[in-house]
Write a structure and sequence with these properties.
By secondary structure, the protein is an alpha/beta fold. It contains 15 helices and eight strands. It is flat, with a radius of gyration of 25 Å. The mean pLDDT is 85.
């Protein structure tokens, strides 16, 4: 019962935090049997929650840093989700004993259940996957060698459009399973260290295929800008298409990075992006001239949306804002690292909101009856989601007004940037036509480009 409540809460939280969650490759996840979900780790706590909400298997026992058990408010939820504490060697000068944790994980898998692990070992914001730890491979091979069950490793790519931004988008991609068959078991019995390393290397390749990786942030920033210039203005990309198109740009750039024409184009794109940054503009604002009528209609629509949502959002805001303040204070007061701050804020909110709703329901139920109590819970829930939409509408209104003011004030600078953009668009599309593999299916047609 507690586990079902926890997973329901996780699904609500992830669906609230992200405006859109796309899942690709769910057919690669078997409906039964022992599975190790192995994912990249760019967003701390949210990575595990997204896999829990979207992998299609439950229970999912995650390997978690043992230091999280120091926070008393986290312990009930960690235990309810079946998380297994593991000590990091680098945090204890290499003097740790995780044998009991591994035995617990062996039992989980041998019973036909699933575990989740992030082989990079730490959450990070690098432009590519870090070198993998060997734990996932060692667990899979050890369990398979015991002969009680077969094991499959599912590589999981977590690709965030804006990883810490509220109401952003994310793509979860499940790759082809790595089946730990008899060949792997025989090799492991002959040379366990070499086999563990070989399987870890194969897992690294599988993870690279379902994630977006660039050698450095400069390359990733350049390819993302080039991708925006290349994309037709009329095309709307899903998170999956966004990641796939950027991945193609990174791969072709890696191959032609030393090409003089590519280097000259990169310098021009980086100069264009630097000018945008200096003026506080975004590339999408230059795709086509913004008329006063269009801008006015957008501003009025968002203002009316705010007015419509206010009556629904205000009652809940009086209760939800204090919860947010308390959660923020808890995160700042009791955390040791930046990732812990976010973790504690989210956990504090999860614990405080149900308690608050329960207290209100009891008070109303005692004084006015059950049905009024039930109506209050429904009303608070509606008010919460209205508050979320209100925040989005307010942010959109602010950006719309700011964009109009900037575009009007900058005048000649904007015209010059639009002319530069037009040249870069022609250049990037010509480069793609010439350098893209002929066997690769195009994401856009010539008609898409003529309409943009």
């Amino acid at each position: 019962m507690v586990q079902l409540l926890v997973i329901s809460m996780i699904r609500i939280i992830t669906s609230t935090f992200f405006r859109r969650i796309d899942v690709v490759g769910l057919e690669n996840v078997p409906a039964d049997g022992a599975i190790i979900f192995a994912g990249n780790h760019p967003n701390a706590l949210m990575d595990g929650w997204l896999l829990t909400a979207k992998c299609g298997r439950w229970p999912l026992h995650f390997v978690a840093n043992a230091k999280l058990w120091k926070y008393r408010m986290l312990v009930p939820i960690l235990n309810a989700t079946g998380a297994v504490p593991v000590f990091r060697r680098e945090e204890h000068d290499g003097d740790v004993d995780n044998q009991q944790a591994f035995e617990t994980l062996y039992e989980v898998i041998e019973s036909g259940n699933c575990m989740g692990i992030f082989p990079e070992g730490v959450s990070h914001a690098e432009s590519k996957i870090l070198k993998l730890k060997t734990g996932a491979a060692r667990i899979a091979l050890t369990v398979s060698a015991r002969g009680k069950t077969g094991v499959r490793i599912i590589p999981c790519g977590l690709n965030y459009i804006h990883r810490h931004r509220f109401r952003s988008q994310v793509l979860i991609e499940f790759g082809q399973p790595i089946v730990i068959g008899d060949e792997w078991v025989m090799a492991y019995r002959e040379d366990d260290q070499a086999t563990v390393r070989k399987l870890t290397d194969q897992l690294a390749q599988a993870l690279a295929a379902v994630t977006l990786n660039a050698p450095d942030w400069r390359t990733l920033r350049f390819t993302q800008t080039a991708r925006r210039l290349y994309k037709p203005s009329t095309a709307v990309l899903s998170p999956g298409e966004y990641v796939e198109l950027t991945r193609r740009f990174v791969e072709r750039y890696d191959e032609f990075a030393s090409n003089p024409e590519m280097q000259a184009f990169q310098n021009a794109v980086e100069d264009y992006q630097a000018r945008l940054d200096m003026l506080g503009l975004k590339d999408y604002q230059l795709r086509k001239p913004i008329t006063l009528g269009d801008a006015f209609r957008k501003i009025v629509f968002r203002a009316l949306t705010i007015v419509a949502l206010l009556p629904l959002a205000i009652p809940g805001a009086l209760l939800h804002l204090p919860v947010g303040w308390i959660a923020a204070a808890v995160g700042e007061r009791f955390s040791y690292e930046m990732d812990d701050v976010a973790t504690l804020k989210v956990f504090a909110t999860i614990l405080l909101l149900p308690i608050l709703y329960l207290i209100i329901a009891i008070l109303i139920g005692v004084n006015f009856g059950f049905w009024w109590s039930f109506a209050a819970i429904i009303g608070l829930t509606v008010s919460f989601f209205a508050s979320v939409r209100l925040i989005e509408a307010e942010a959109g209104l602010f950006l719309s007004v700011l964009s109009v003011l900037r575009l009007a004030r900058l005048g000649s600078e904007v015209d010059d940037l639009r002319a530069t953009r037009k040249v870069l668009v022609t250049q990037v599309r010509a480069l793609v036509d010439r350098l893209a593999p002929t066997e690769t299916a195009r994401m856009f047609t010539s008609k898409d480009f003529t309409q943009s």
